[in-house]
Write a structure and sequence with these properties.
The chain is of the alpha+beta class. The chain has one domain. The chain contains 7 helices and 7 strands. Strands 3, 4, 6 and 7 form a 4-stranded antiparallel beta sheet that branches. A 3-stranded antiparallel beta sheet has the order 1-2-5, with no helix packed on it. Helix 2 packs across helix 6. The longest helix is centred in the first third of the chain and has 34 residues. The protein is elongated.
Length: about 250
């Protein structure tokens, strides 16, 4: 194995990881800017009151796609670095939705070439890295999200809003007090209706976070920032595992 070539590729992995982490900070800045603005308000009309939430900034969706694209690129550069170090063509990082399909993939094609050059890799991939759905390091999820984003219109993140101290009074002075209310998505959520009409509707405070939509190709319903941070840590751990094994 040519260690100089190997280390060149893994230096690129480190650079892409750093870029992914910068994009995560960018995501947090977009969310902070959203929260600091008028992202939600209580709306009252003649007979009802609702909590209305605006969409998250479009720039957040792009930044998240950049995070996961860089992490996916890291994975491919790891296996490419291994193969290039022994004079072979680059191959993509092994990954399948189901473990049994991943096992079969090592019998022929690019994955067979990968383990022919590095016999220890098959066991490490299957038992430790687990690049299948719900595997230990979420490799399949990173790849699934990024591969989908390459071919489809960007995934739109959803706001998850928490409003506290809601106080609504109708024209007969009937009062509704709600300690806190959690809502999801960018739309109006009905709270109270009254034939007498709504006199006032206020809340003490509100905050929000961003979550992956339920129908996301991966990470559905998970919080954006925490999920991206964990994905970056996981990809870094995978890189460390491969480096240690290849150089030992």
């Amino acid at each position: 194995m040519d260690k100089a070539i190997f280390e060149k590729y893994f230096k690129s992995v480190s650079q892409k990881l750093a870029r992914a982490e910068r994009h995560i900070k960018e995501c947090q800045e977009h969310i902070n800017s959203y929260i600091s603005g008028e992202f939600t308000k209580l709306v009252k009309d003649q007979r009802s009151s609702s909590l209305s939430t605006i969409p998250l900034p479009e720039e957040l969706d792009t930044a998240i796609a950049d995070v996961l694209h860089n992490l996916n690129a890291c994975l491919d550069q790891m296996t490419s670095g291994l193969m290039r170090s022994i004079g072979e063509q680059s191959v993509k990082f092994p990954s399948k939705k189901h473990k049994q399909d991943l096992v079969k993939s090592f019998d022929k094609g690019p994955n067979a070439k990968l383990v022919a050059g590095f016999p220890w890799l098959k066991e490490l991939v299957l038992d430790e890295i687990q690049p299948f759905q719900n595997g230990q390091y979420q490799v399949w999820e990173v790849r699934q999200f990024d591969n989908n984003d390459k071919h489809e219109i960007g995934i739109v993140m959803e706001p998850a809003t928490l409003a506290r101290g809601i106080d609504i009074v109708d024209n007969n002075n009937n009062r509704v007090l709600i300690g806190q209310m959690s809502v999801r998505g960018a739309r109006a959520f009905g709270i109270v209706s009254s034939d007498a009409g709504i006199k006032s509707a206020t809340y003490e405070s509100a905050t929000a976070t961003a979550i992956f939509p339920k129908d996301s190709p991966a990470f559905g319903d998970q919080p954006v920032i925490e999920t991206c941070l964990l994905a970056a840590r996981n990809v870094r751990k995978v890189a460390q595992l491969l480096q240690y094994k290849a150089l030992s």
